[in-house]
User: Which sequence fits this backbone?
């Protein structure tokens, strides 16, 4: 019997890509799923396909939309925050609005959602929170203005919550994938090491959700290479720059 069976999860950012595959995997494991994203049509079609799922339209950048969604949510056992946006952005082509949009969806949206969900989990001493970060959150990388910072902030948030919620009955985990083949990574014009299909990445996430381990980084060895950069001296990382 899967530990996910019979549980009720709220998957945010579920209409396509990784979120869609996570939702499919949860239903296949016997869970009941609430699907959220901005696209009502896409959510409804996915709910029809999955069966044990219902759509709940929500815009994580809109506080009123989040509050309305929570009112119609019902009881849940856990959430998966997968809402995310990305655009390659170099410092030489600075676009404040594009950077702020990434921060708003990737990080601030999680804060808005958790502001409603976390107090309920703490009060009942039970709940499961999975935040989908990125290996890009570990190290400043080229053309990652906005995106890298948003994922670094999400990782930091997860780390703080893990400290604070120890012994509370609430489980917090951060899952940091590398490159996943989606319409977002299709924007990149560079070689992406160990690029993986969304369904493969979702299996990593689902396995992590069945464990109490706090942090899951993948794929190896790419994640080792990214994390090794944080250990190198600045003169070596930025040599010739």
Assistant:
């Amino acid at each position: 019997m899967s530990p996910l069976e019979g549980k009720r999860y709220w998957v945010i950012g579920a209409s396509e890509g990784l979120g869609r595959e996570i939702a499919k995997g949860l239903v296949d494991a016997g869970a009941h799923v609430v699907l959220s994203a901005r696209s009502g049509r896409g959510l409804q079609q996915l709910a029809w396909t999955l069966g044990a799922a219902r759509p709940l339209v929500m815009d994580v950048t809109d506080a009123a939309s989040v509050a309305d969604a929570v009112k119609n949510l019902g009881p849940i056992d856990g959430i998966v925050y997968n809402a995310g946006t990305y655009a390659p952005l170099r410092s030489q082509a600075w676009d404040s609005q594009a950077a702020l949009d990434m921060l708003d969806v990737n990080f601030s949206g999680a804060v808005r959602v958790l502001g409603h969900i976390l107090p309920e989990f703490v009060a009942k001493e039970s709940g499961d929170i999975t935040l989908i970060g990125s290996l890009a959150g570990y190290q400043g990388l080229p053309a990652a203005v906005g995106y890298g910072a948003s994922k670094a902030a999400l990782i930091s948030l997860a780390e703080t919550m893990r400290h604070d919620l120890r012994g509370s009955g609430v489980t917090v985990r951060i899952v940091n994938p590398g490159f996943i083949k989606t319409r977002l990574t299709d924007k990149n014009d560079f070689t992406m090491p160990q690029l993986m299909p969304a369904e493969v990445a979702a299996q990593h996430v689902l396995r992590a959700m069945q464990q109490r381990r706090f942090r899951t980084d993948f794929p190896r060895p790419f994640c080792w290479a990214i994390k090794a950069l944080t250990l190198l001296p600045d003169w070596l990382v930025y040599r010739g720059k």
Remarks:
- The two ends are 54 Å apart (CA to CA).
- Residues 24 and 49 are 9 Å apart (CA to CA).
